[in-house]
């Protein structure tokens, strides 16, 4: 090779190198990077004003949890034979020992308020720099690692419905309009003993379209409607859609994509978006979904332990549902319960880019009714599957998902009111500036998490106005309701199904031909 040819080759390599660097730089979502790193400011200010002893205590606890998470990853991925070592139970013992050490060293004054305050600060550190970081990283490398590609599996969509007149028609219409091969899709509405025009409304679509069918049964609850529908389902993939929800045009293709990519995936979750955002209550719920549900699911997706496949849009391998004996009657949250059963059977549960639009409760009373069922059902499900907490053979479910969920369900609601009592005492004692500093810190972190979630999910930036309510107001409503539901379940009261009122209970329009777009 001549000198000229060598120089040309070197120039070509250099150009290709810098073109690759340029593409990489252009691919970075710099707004997300800026939002994520801006949290260094409030965290830095907090660290700057904290006593050294408290910083040492926080650092030691974060170090303990980092070792636990690192060890958990190593055990699950590389050395399952060591699964009995340093598991969730050992972590609980270690935390008790940790408290004893920091009290002995004088880093913490032994009081409930001091422990709760320390726990709250550590949790906000972990949530931001672990869970939010994974979601941020997820966004940087691409929203989904699963791309829909033909051939597409045969799908049966189950729509359980009880008194859904005015809703079920447009749910069916959105499924007919979806971008999915018509010869691989069947839509089955299950009328669970409705007393209104639900059956007639769904039957009008069944009469107009061959791939739509309707069955009816005596009222027995959502779980029984889904089980009944399975008897008539012929698809390899079972998709469930609530009768008040509308799926996106490409939702079906997106929600089945993970099944083709990995055989160990047994169920797939969707992203939930609220369509009726015309009140303070519904806007707060959308912000809650954005940062507390969708972001959290994307973090758990990396470990294959998404804990809830939402009933408004979820997908399961048919054989997996059959293996776990489908839906059970012993909780009020059949979606959480069946997801736990799938995870316990050794399957992964992932999240997709499938999007569903659902109606949220529009008043505080209706929100109370909805969450009464959700929170009671959550505690029922956790108690039902309590053995997972103590059995290290469940891998990430035992080591990561359940510990986080237990803290969220049992510690945070109680801690919220302990902190409020402490704030009240500080205000009464004249420490107003201290209270303001604490509120500014927590509000700024929630604000940044909300902004990051909005950026990642492509949501409405006006939702940021409601971020402070996720610190004071809206949060305490849910915390109080959580504690009430925990007591209800522990007292084993007769806990029935509670349901929010529907906004639009009116007949739907005549069935239309699916759009060609």
TrEMBL record:
Q: For this UniProt entry, which residues form the secretion signal?
A: none
Alphabetically list the UniProt keywords.
Glycosyltransferase, Membrane, Transferase, Transmembrane, Transmembrane helix
Q: Name one Pfam family in it.
A: Glycos_transf_2
Provide any one GO MF term from the record: glycosyltransferase activity
Q: Which residues form the Glycosyltransferase 2-like domain?
A: 156-325
> Superkingdom of the source?
Archaea
InterPro entries, sorted: Glyco_trans_2-like (IPR001173), Nucleotide-diphossugar_trans (IPR029044)
Membrane spanning residue stretches: 32-50, 56-76, 88-107, 113-137, 406-427, 433-454
Protein name as annotated: Glycosyltransferase, catalytic subunit of cellulose synthase and poly-beta-1,6-N-acetylglucosamine synthase
Q: Which organism is it from?
A: Natronorubrum texcoconense
């Amino acid at each position: 090779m001549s000198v000229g040819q060598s120089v040309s080759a070197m120039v070509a390599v250099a150009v290709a190198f810098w073109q690759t660097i340029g593409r990489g730089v252009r691919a970075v979502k710099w707004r997300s990077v800026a939002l994520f790193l801006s949290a260094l400011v409030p965290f830095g200010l907090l660290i700057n004003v904290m006593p050294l002893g408290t910083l040492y205590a926080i650092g030691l606890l974060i170090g303990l949890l980092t070792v636990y998470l690192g060890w958990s990853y190593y055990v699950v991925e590389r050395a399952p034979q060591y699964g009995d070592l340093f598991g969730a139970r050992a972590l609980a013992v270690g935390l008790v020992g940790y408290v004893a050490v920091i009290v002995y060293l004088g880093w913490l004054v032994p009081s409930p308020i001091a422990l709760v305050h320390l726990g709250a600060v550590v949790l906000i550190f972990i949530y931001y720099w672990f869970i939010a970081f994974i979601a941020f990283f997820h966004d940087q490398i691409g929203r989904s690692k699963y791309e829909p590609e033909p051939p597409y599996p045969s799908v049966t969509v189950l729509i359980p419905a009880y008194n859904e007149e005015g809703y079920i028609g447009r749910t069916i219409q959105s499924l007919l309009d979806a971008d999915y091969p018509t010869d691989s899709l069947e839509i089955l509405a299950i009328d669970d003993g409705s007393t209104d025009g639900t059956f007639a409304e769904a039957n009008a679509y069944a009469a107009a379209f061959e791939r739509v069918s309707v069955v009816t049964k005596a009222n027995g609850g959502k779980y029984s409607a889904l089980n009944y529908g399975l008897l008539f389902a012929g698809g390899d993939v079972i998709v469930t859609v609530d009768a008040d929800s509308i799926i996106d045009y490409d939702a079906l293709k997106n929600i089945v994509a993970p099944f083709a990519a990995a055989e160990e995936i047994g169920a797939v979750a969707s992203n939930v978006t609220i369509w009726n955002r015309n009140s303070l209550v519904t806007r707060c719920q959308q912000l809650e979904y954005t940062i507390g549900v969708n972001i959290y699911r994307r973090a758990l997706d990396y470990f294959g332990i998404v804990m809830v496949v939402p009933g408004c849009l979820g997908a399961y391998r048919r054989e997996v549902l059959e293996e776990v004996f489908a839906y059970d009657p012993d909780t009020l949250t059949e979606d959480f319960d069946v997801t736990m059963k799938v995870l316990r059977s050794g399957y992964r549960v992932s999240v997709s880019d499938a999007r569903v639009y659902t109606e949220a409760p529009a008043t505080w009373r209706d929100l109370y009714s909805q969450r009464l069922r959700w929170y009671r059902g959550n505690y029922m499900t956790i108690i039902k599957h309590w053995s997972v907490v103590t059995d290290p053979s469940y891998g990430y479910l035992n080591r990561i998902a359940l510990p986080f969920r237990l803290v969220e369900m049992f510690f945070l609601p109680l801690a919220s009111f302990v902190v409020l009592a402490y704030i009240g005492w500080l205000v009464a004692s004249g420490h107003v500036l201290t209270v303001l500093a604490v509120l500014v810190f927590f509000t700024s972190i929630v604000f940044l998490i909300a902004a990051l979630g909005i950026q990642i999910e492509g949501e409405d930036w006006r939702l940021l106005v409601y971020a402070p309510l996720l610190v004071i107001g809206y949060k305490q409503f849910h915390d109080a309701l959580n504690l009430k539901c925990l007591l209800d379940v522990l007292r084993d009261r007769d806990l029935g199904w509670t349901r929010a009122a529907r906004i639009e209970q009116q007949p739907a329009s005549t069935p239309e031909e699916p759009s060609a777009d």
